[in-house]
Specification:
By secondary structure, the protein is of the alpha/beta class. Helices cover 25% and strands 16% of the residues. The protein has an 8-stranded parallel β-sheet. A 6-stranded antiparallel β-sheet has the order 1-15-16-17-22-19. A 3-stranded antiparallel β-sheet has the order 7-9-8. Strand 16 and strand 17 form a beta hairpin. The two termini are 18 Å apart. Bound molecules: alpha-D-glucopyranose. Alpha-D-glucopyranose (GLC) binds next to loops.
């Protein structure tokens, strides 16, 4: 049974020179987690010069753009997602001049640059929060409940665990959906809107090509801040509309930002974009963020969370495409980022990860890669507790009343596994820090990562790095990949077969070989394929691309 899916999008212009409209509709965008990418000064923490110096790796890999995680002035309570000054570079990462230099070097290489913007909350060290009067105007402060205001204003929990409220020494409470060092801004206040518009313009003038909008589903809270009525709220994120997430009011903000981005596109001739990090309960609600007058892209976390199973994959691909086609946007696929278990580990092994990546890159739309996935890095699951840094690791152990919880069942919040996907990259050599920098690395790297380094994998046709390079080169070469049409093809049980113009992608999700008639000329395979006469053997947990 075949099902035709047609994207109504205009054909994208050739990728490459600035000015190409719609470049993002099929772009492959590489996420750089700055503190773990490359360290230029030996303090063990990656920085902007480190990124700049390694940009040739990304050019060679074949991506179109780079997304840089926050490098702004920050006390680093949450890896820089606690911003104290949105217009300054943290000395840990370099200077504003380094940022400009990085952007220019990237542009010279033909790479676009997207930066993070964090509008839901600031750092508690932000000047607005440091001033008690200003803070009460621009953040979410409420009196407590109970006879003496000793109880939090409502029952909301922090995404990282524990209560979402902290009491000040003045006796009132402020809201923080994440760590207490990340107070939520009050987006009912016009000054907040004005400030963020100015911040966006500041970075646009510095030459960035777009923004990844952190917690784009936050910002607006349900009127009256109603109780939820039960605990374990973090587990509902992405499956339910909550009074603090995915409120309809956030869309007005995204519409304003889209106008601002479009104005800049009009005046500069460079098409600048916004990508939403939005944890929405369904692909249909997620698609609302990419309506024509809102942001350009939204990460498809439903796809990321799908198990390695034919029916589930097919369902999420169909529903994602249908939901985004309905609003005229492409789908934005992603398998890994700095907040989730790396897909090599999450899916149960490198074979599946390689296959999942080839599947993702064959789907219509755009895709995000997370640094290190091109090396097949696994999640580091045995980091010692004393090395851990993620606030979700520490707060994840808190009960809903803020006390230290006993045992997993009493905990709230994210599991706090995020350090394991943030271990600095191995570039070369046999010993840590594997060329990450002249010093050490802020999280310890496994002793066997020498074999996974960029240098070790370069030139080895069986390596994951060369698989990614080949896939991205083919994606550029084959007009049928990227944005456009897709149709399912009949396939044996356990196999997904999808056709793009001129090519076919076959995924064997089973753990054993499946024999199929040879569909055409083999273009790329995540595992060795044996073809004999008219039939080919698709190895277990593999993906193959065929020219037809
Ligand atoms: C986003 C970021 C995550 C951060 C959180 C709070 O989810 O990806 O790393 O902790 O927002 O800013």
């Amino acid at each position: 049974m075949t099902q035709e899916l047609t994207s109504p999008s205009p054909a994208p212009q050739a990728a490459g020179p600035d000015g190409a409209r719609g470049w993002w509709r099929d772009a492959v965008i590489y996420q750089v987690y700055v503190r773990s990418f490359a360290d230029s000064d030996g303090d063990g923490i990656g920085d902007l010069r480190g990124v700049r110096d390694r940009l040739p790796h990304l050019k060679e890999l074949g991506v179109d753009a780079v997304w840089l995680t926050p490098f702004y002035a920050s006390p680093q309570a949450d890896g820089g997602y606690d911003v104290a000054d949105y217009r300054a570079v943290d000395p840990l990462f370099g200077t504003l001049a380094d940022a400009g230099d990085l952007i220019r070097t990237a542009h010279d290489l033909g790479l676009r640059v997207i930066v993070d913007v964090v509008p839901n909350h600031t750092s508690d060290r932000h000047p607005w929060f440091q001033d008690p009067e200003l803070a009460r105007q621009r953040y979410v402060f409420r009196p407590g409940k109970g006879a003496h205001g000793e109880l939090p204003p409502n029952d909301w929990e922090s995404v990282f665990g524990g209560p979402a409220w902290t009491r000040t020494d003045r006796g009132d409470w402020y809201l923080h959906l994440f760590a207490p060092e990340q107070p939520d801004l009050d987006w009912e206040r016009p000054e907040v809107h004005e400030e963020f518009a100015a911040i966006l313009r500041f970075w646009l003038e510095l030459g960035v090509d777009g923004f990844r909008v952190d917690v784009a589903h936050g910002m607006i809270k349900a009127p009256g801040l109603p109780d939820i009525g039960h605990g374990e709220q973090a587990r509902l994120i992405g499956s339910q509309v909550l009074p603090f997430f995915d409120q309809d009011g956030v869309h007005a903000i995204h519409r304003t930002w889209r106008r601002l981005l479009d104005e800049h596109t009009g005046s500069s001739g460079r098409e600048v974009i916004g990508v939403a990090e939005a944890w929405a309960p369904s692909v249909e609600r997620l698609a609302l963020y990419v309506r024509p007058d809102e942001l350009h892209q939204a990460f498809n976390f439903q796809f990321l969370n799908t198990p390695w199973e034919v029916a589930a994959l097919r369902e999420v691909i169909d529903s994602s495409l249908a939901a985004t086609v309905a609003v005229g946007a492409p789908t934005t696929w992603v398998l890994s980022n700095h907040d989730v278990v790396r897909h090599t580990t999450r899916l149960g092994g490198l074979a599946r990860a390689r296959a999942a990546t080839l599947l993702m890159l064959a789907l219509p739309g755009s895709a995000y890669l997370y640094q290190g996935e091109e090396l097949g890095l696994p999640e580091v699951v045995d980091l010692p507790a004393e090395a851990r840094q993620d606030p979700a690791f520490f707060r994840g152990r808190l009960g809903v009343d803020g006390s230290e919880a006993v045992g997993a069942s009493g905990t709230s919040g994210q599991d706090g596994f995020r350090d394991g996907c943030r271990v600095p990259l191995p570039w070369s050599g046999e010993l840590p820090p594997y060329g990450f920098g002249p010093g050490g690395s802020w999280l310890p790297q496994p002793v066997d990562w020498g074999r996974l380094s960029v240098a070790a994998q370069t030139g080895d046709p069986a390596s994951t790095l060369e698989l990614y390079r080949s896939a991205l080169a083919l994606r550029r070469r084959l007009p049928g990949l990227g944005d456009g049409e897709m149709a399912w093809q009949p396939a044996p049980a356990g196999v997904l077969a999808l056709r793009r113009p001129g090519m076919l992608c076959a995924v064997n999700t089973l753990d054993r070989d499946v024999e199929v008639p040879v569909p055409g000329e083999l273009l790329l395979a995540s595992a060795p394929v044996a073809a004999d006469g008219g039939s080919a053997v698709l190895p277990g947990d593999s993906c193959t691309w065929w020219a037809i």
